[in-house]
Each structure stands twice: as C-alpha cells, then as structure tokens.
Automatic annotation (TrEMBL):
GO biological process terms on file: monoatomic ion transport
Residues annotated as domain Porin: 28-342
PANTHER family tied to this protein: MAJOR OUTER MEMBRANE PROTEIN P.IA, PROTEIN YDDL-RELATED
The protein, known as: Porin domain-containing protein
C-alpha cells in the first residue's frame, strides 16, 4: 500500500510541475497585458485662524474662521497607464469648513472638482465639474489663486470676472499638449435646457506661454443666464447690476508673471460685461511674492476696479507673511483693506466688502488674520 501511494505521488509530480509552469506563464502574460501602473492619492489641507474685522455690519468682529488663505479641503487624485502614451485620470475634491465640519457647498460632497478624463499625446479631455479654461490661464496671475499670498481677501469685488475659481458643472474640456512653451484649452458647459443648446451654457477659452522665468496668458468666458451675487456681495456693496434669465456675462483678461531669483512679479487686467445692462467692470492688479531665507514667504498685492455705470471705484490692498514650520505646515498672517466710492445698485453710497466677509457700514473695511495651515 505504501509503495502504491509512493508511485502515485511520483507519477503526479511532472503534471503538477507542468501546471505550475503554465500558471506562472499565464500570470506573467497577464502582467504584461495589464497597464504598467495605477495610483490613487489622498491629499488635502486645513486652514484655520482668527480674524479681526474692523467694520462688518455696524461694528468690529472677532471670529475663528476656516480657509481664508486656501479653502480647507480633501481630495482623491488617480491615474492609470493605458499604454501607448495614454493615461486615464480622475480627480475628486471637497471643500469644507474646518471650524464646524460643514460642507463647503450645502448638499454637495465634491464641491471643488469632480472629473474624469484621458491624457494622450494629442492632449487631454476631461468631463465633469472642473475649472474654466480662463481660470487655468489667468488664475496664476492673481493673488486670490496663489498658494501663498493674501488669497481670498484680495479677490476682485464679487468675483464678476470669474478669475477666482468657481468650477463649471456638466462640462467637457480639451487642453493641448505643451508645444515650445505654448498651450491652449477650450471648455463647454452644457446648459441642459430642452429646446436650446446655449441656454444656461458656459463657453471658455484660454491660451498661454510658459518658458523659463516668463509666463503670459489670456482667457475668455461667456456665461449664459442670470448672474447672481447671493453669498458674494450684499446689495449695499454691489456696484454692478441685477440680471435676468436671458442675460449673459462675458469676461476676458490678459496677464503675465516674471521670476527674478526667489521673487515672482505678476500683473493682470480683466473686463466683465453684462449683455443686457451693458454694465462693464474693469480690474487692474499688480502683485509680488518672495521667498526669504528659505522659511519666509512674503506677499503683496493691489487691485483697482472701475464700474463706470455707477461711478464706482474699489481699491484693495493686501499683504501677507508665512513662516514654514515644515514642508507641510506653516503659520501665517495677512492684512487687507478695501476702500469703495460711488453708488451701489440701489443708488445709495457704495459700501466696502472684502470677499467672504459681511458688508461694512461705510466705504472702508479691513481685516487682520493669524492662522495655521497644514497640508497632507
């Protein structure tokens, strides 16, 4: 009996070896057939600090706030090689209030970005909730979109020129590859209105040049439909206009930056115009950010907006200083002041209102902030 069992085991060994070799060969073939690599990255940041506002409503205020240099956020970024120079990509990004845990946009989980796309040698295509092409090519020349700097307090009044990123939903975007420093992009946001392709739709284009220390960009965007100011500007601080369902906003701009050692100089011009009311808002911005002694990042910015219809003039000056405690954590302080003159849409004297704050009771408003930011 023992002999028989031994013979049986011995006779099965070549078969087992052949099966093992075949299985290993199949696994190797599958490994070759699979994409070379795929990855998913979890990332985010938290920005928390104390603000002192000189005039908000009818007096000063002191409060703990989240996300004034950068909005507190977390996200998922994924890539997968599809061979032949092609990649699948996706990005999901959520904005939230770190002070109370609330979503950045009520009822919306991925309020900052939610897109999927393909990257090829001929360029990239992405679909979903994503920045307009104009933001891609002009955002780098405004302090409100810089990673270091006065950030949101320096945003242009009401963000009517749309340079500060308000992502476009239901959109498709194509971006060319970088060719000799040049690139371009086009976006269309579907309005989804039965019987009309253009109703509630968004068009945006951008072109830029980045080579060495010099960067230049231009962008255009048209938004069809009403352009509201809810949550951005109070009526007392709004020098623009009310709009209707058939109105459209057209905005464009040009900007540039130049690196000199550890300093970045930037400039931007934008114009926003409402089709029906023919209201124009022109903004001029100049700024600088510098890295000093490897640990300090200093920023300064000034912008001026003219709205001729209401003889309105709004000037915002902002400065900031950030100290790097590590590669991921920094402490910073920022100060901004806005002076406004002219009349608002109600015909009364225009009040000042820095972005993300309540309107002042007069034409001047300032804010000082000390905060901590951690990236992960």
């Amino acid at each position: 009996m023992l002999v028989s069992e031994t013979k049986l085991k011995s006779s099965n060994q070549p078969t087992l070896r052949r099966f093992a070799v075949a299985f290993a060969s199949l696994g190797a073939a599958m490994a070759v057939a699979r994409p070379a690599s795929a990855s998913v990255t979890l990332y985010g940041l938290m920005d928390m600090g104390v603000d002192y506002v000189s005039n908000e409503g009818h007096g000063a205020s002191l409060k703990l706030t989240s996300g004034e240099l950068q909005q507190s956020r977390f996200g998922l970024l994924g890539t997968e090689d599809l061979s032949d120079g092609m990649q699948a990509i996706f990005k999901l990004e959520n904005g939230f209030n770190a002070a109370n845990g609330a979503l950045g946009a009520a009822g919306t989980l991925w309020s900052r970005e939610a897109r999927v796309g393909l990257v090829t040698r001929a360029g990239s295509v992405s679909l979903g909730l994503q920045p307009a092409s104009m933001v891609d090519y002009l955002g780098k020349y405004t302090a409100s979109m810089l990673v270091y700097g006065p950030a949101y307090y320096s945003a242009h009044p009401g963000n009517y020129d749309r340079v500060l990123n308000f992502p476009i939903s239901n959109s498709i975007k194509y971006t060319t590859p970088l060719l000799g420093g040049f690139s371009a992009s086009a976006l269309f946001g579907f309005g989804g209105q039965p019987g009309s392709i253009t109703a509630q739709s968004t068009w945006s284009f951008g072109v830029g040049y980045d080579q060495g220390p010099l960067s230049i960009g231009a962008g255009y965007m048209k938004v069809n439909g009403p352009i509201g100011t809810a949550g951005i500007l109070a009526s007392t601080a709004n020098p623009f206009t009310t709009t209707n369902a058939n109105d459209a906003l057209q905005t464009y701009g040009v900007g540039g930056s130049y690196e000199i050692g550890s300093s970045l100089l930037f400039a931007l011009f934008t114009q926003a115009q409402f089709r029906d009311a023919d209201t124009k808002a022109r903004t001029y911005e100049l700024g600088v950010k510098s890295v000093v002694a490897h640990f300090w990042t200093l920023g300064g910015d000034i912008s001026h907006t003219d709205v001729s219809d209401h003889h309105a003039h709004l000037t915002t000056l902002s400065v900031s200083a950030a100290y790097a405690l590590s590669k991921r954590t920094d402490a910073y302080g920022t100060f901004a002041v806005e002076r406004a003159s002219g009349t608002n849409i109600d015909g009364t004297p225009l009040a000042a209102q820095l972005f993300a704050l309540g309107a002042a009771s007069s034409g001047t408003q300032s804010v000082f902030r000390i905060a901590l930011r951690h990236k992960f």
